[in-house]
Task: inverse folding
């Protein structure tokens, strides 16, 4: 990791992976808003998780201190990421694992494909992982003739439905159980024909389907929630036990981990293993926490590979204001409270990282010019910052990235309009003159006292809302005559 | 006590009634109010839309206009939020450290109206009378940037004759978000429709808030649909002095 950067660190590789949508956010959002089933599904799911989270967070008297501790540990990690990663490599290697350094999606996909091929595998089982979704690993394996089987229930629903994840924690949050039944009947071989949408029946069908995969696969691919530099231990937390199966049964285990998933010491996990389950699933503890350090003869995989993925992360690290986006522990609490996410779902963001954290992380990973609409996909209401377990000030980063987006765009009508408004606000005299000009707006509406139609771009306002008729007298004029 | 009214550009140009109500309320409580005429806009719209450099002269103007006063009061949680959380940071990022210091000093004596009434003047009963059914939208920036908490409710509860009803999902954003309402007008409208649904479910005649920007958005929907519910700034309710 002693690379010398010439200029700025590279952003995420283009043309591969799932960080770039094909439509700007407002367009994709408009399509999503019209999907009444999606709005009902997501509205119901986020409301349920929000309430669960609020209840278990309220139980802890030291929640704010935990958040501050989480923030401090992550800030410290980012400040010395390079030596800590080298320490992790040493410890993993000493414990019998192999560490690979990957600059981007293409390098990672090539490394994983190479290991699977060397193991003679034509299929792999996967633990739910954001990093591998980010880099499009399944598609890369497919091209190499290797089938990847998602084993997390929600990821399986997405995969069988030939769909994309729409939530970090609950990738199939946009589906209800009737839709899941249809997907299973269509895509799951040997599924019982009288399958109902009873959750227990759906889970049983998935369990039978997956059990065969667990027993036949020789290679597993996972992500990592945390990796401990001090010990070389990798941690995966999950709810279903599918992860435990993947991490213990196959002969070869490959973990793809974003370089920011690091924590310095084992004791640091004490903080995050409290913050994460309460913030994500609204549970006091997650059902399964798997930790492993390298390999052990006669127990678990005989080969362990850890792929450290950059894919734009060092570019984020280089930005003082945007850097805390790397502190994210992928809990999804910000998605569940976001009024924008709740109405449009995850697909509108065009990235595997949707919602508020996606709106600050994705444009930084790809470079803002490739996702210029995402920093504007927020009202800056601040609900995300309040629930973030590591106190990422998402609204401030959004505002920072907006400045980058407008700078990248250069001139244009909007910049001109803002310059004109700034000029008008530049002196009280000009502002008073602008107010007199505004009074002409009174002519637009003389009957109802409300303006209902205006030309573009204000038509975007008046399409659904009135504007008040400008007053006869501004406040400063009233004051002057008082 | 001499207090400068930080009117905000929106109140000055479009909603002078909220500004006049703030003046009359404060004067009734024995405060000497001044409207510094050098003020124009705090620059929040420029900062939040991605034009911090254009905002810098506005921040400079704001600080110079209000620096001479003991306290600054605004009928807006959002604009006070801008002064408190953005001005110094923008000045620092753009390299004006003197302005950064001055902006920070000024922000420490800049108050949103309900903060000023409850914390500085120490009153919750401002002698108002408003015999109507009212619900409060607490506004995102008052809640989450300023942490005004239940101060607006403390004030409203003391108003004579008021029938104050709780707004369901009150803490959720109305969908305004400044230029968000234009750039993402569809999402903004979807959020507004849910906010209106909650407001109308209370059967209130009036929805109130500490920010005219949110109210402009909410009222825009209420009047478009001829709902028979109107939006009024908190100051306009508190300024209504009835016989006691």
Result:
């Amino acid at each position: 990791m002693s690379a010398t950067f010439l200029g700025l660190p590279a952003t995420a590789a283009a043309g591969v992976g799932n960080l770039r949508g094909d439509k700007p956010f407002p367009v994709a959002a408009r399509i999503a808003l019209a999907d009444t089933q999606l709005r009902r599904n997501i509205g119901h799911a986020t409301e349920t998780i929000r309430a669960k989270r609020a209840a278990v967070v309220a139980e802890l008297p030291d929640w704010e201190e935990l958040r501050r501790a989480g923030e401090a540990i992550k800030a410290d990690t980012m400040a010395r990421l390079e030596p800590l990663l080298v320490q992790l490599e040493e410890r993993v290697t000493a414990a019998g694992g192999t560490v690979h350094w990957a600059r981007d999606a293409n390098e990672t996909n090539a490394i994983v494909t190479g290991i699977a091929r060397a193991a003679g595998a034509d299929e792999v089982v996967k633990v739910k992982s954001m990093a591998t979704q980010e880099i499009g690993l399944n598609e890369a394996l497919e091209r190499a003739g290797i089938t990847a089987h998602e084993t997390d229930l929600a990821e399986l629903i997405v995969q069988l439905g030939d769909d994309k994840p729409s939530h970090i924690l609950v990738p199939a949050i946009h589906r209800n159980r009737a839709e899941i039944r249809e997907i299973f009947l269509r895509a799951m071989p040997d599924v019982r024909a009288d399958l109902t949408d009873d959750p227990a029946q759906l889970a049983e069908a998935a369990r039978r389907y997956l059990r065969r995969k667990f027993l036949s696969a020789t290679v597993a691919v996972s992500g990592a929630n945390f990796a401990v530099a001090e010990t070389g231990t990798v941690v995966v937390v999950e709810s279903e036990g599918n992860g435990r199966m993947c991490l213990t049964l196959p002969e070869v285990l490959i973990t793809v981990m974003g370089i920011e998933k690091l924590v310095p010491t084992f004791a640091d996990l004490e903080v995050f293993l409290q913050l994460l389950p309460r913030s994500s699933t609204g549970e006091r503890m997650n059902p399964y926490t798997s930790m492993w350090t390298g390999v052990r003869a006669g127990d678990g995989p005989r080969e362990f590979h850890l792929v450290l993925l950059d894919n734009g992360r060092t570019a984020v690290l280089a930005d003082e204001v945007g850097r805390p986006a790397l502190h994210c522990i992928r809990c999804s609490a910000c998605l569940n409270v976001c009024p924008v996410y709740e109405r449009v779902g995850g697909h509108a963001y065009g990235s595997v990282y949707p919602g508020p954290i996606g709106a600050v992380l994705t444009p930084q990973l790809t470079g803002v010019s490739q996702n210029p609409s995402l920093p504007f996909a927020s009202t800056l209401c601040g609900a995300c910052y309040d629930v973030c377990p590591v106190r990422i000030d998402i609204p401030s980063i959004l505002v920072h990235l907006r400045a980058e987006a407008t700078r990248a765009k250069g001139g244009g009508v909007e910049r001109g309009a803002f310059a004109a408004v700034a000029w008008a606000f530049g002196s009280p005299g000009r502002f008073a003159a602008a107010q007199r000009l505004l009074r002409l707006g009174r002519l637009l509406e003389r009957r109802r006292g409300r303006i209902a139609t205006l030309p573009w771009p204000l038509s975007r306002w008046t399409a659904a809302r009135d504007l008040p008729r400008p007053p006869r007298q501004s406040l400063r004029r009233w004051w002057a005559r008082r | 006590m001499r207090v400068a009214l930080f009117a905000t550009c929106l109140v000055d140009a479009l909603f002078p009634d909220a500004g006049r109500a703030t003046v009359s309320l404060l004067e009734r409580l024995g405060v000497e109010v001044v409207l510094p005429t050098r003020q124009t806009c705090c620059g929040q719209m420029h900062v939040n839309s991605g034009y911090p450099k254009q905002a810098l002269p506005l921040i400079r103007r704001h600080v110079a206009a209000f620096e001479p006063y003991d306290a600054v009061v605004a009928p807006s949680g959002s604009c006070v939020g801008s002064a408190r959380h953005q001005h110094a940071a923008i000045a620092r990022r753009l390299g004006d450290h003197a302005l950064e210091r001055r902006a920070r000093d000024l922000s420490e004596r800049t108050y949103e109206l309900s903060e000023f009434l409850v914390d500085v003047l120490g009153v919750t009963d401002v002698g108002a009378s408003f015999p109507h059914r009212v619900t409060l939208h607490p506004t995102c920036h008052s809640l989450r940037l300023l942490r005004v908490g239940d101060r607006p409710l403390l004030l409203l509860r003391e108003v004579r004759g008021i029938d104050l009803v709780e707004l369901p999902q009150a803490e959720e954003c109305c969908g305004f978000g400044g230029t968000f309402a234009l750039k993402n007008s569809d999402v903004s409208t979807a959020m507004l429709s849910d906010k209106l649904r909650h407001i109308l479910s209370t059967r209130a005649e009036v929805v109130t808030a500490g920010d005219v920007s949110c109210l402009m958005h909410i009222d825009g929907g209420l009047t478009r649909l001829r709902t028979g519910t109107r939006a009024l700034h908190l100051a306009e309710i508190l300024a209504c002095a009835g016989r006691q």
User: Anything to note?
Assistant: The two ends of chain A are 70 Å apart (CA to CA). The mean pLDDT of chain A is 95. The longest helix of chain A spans residues 36-58.
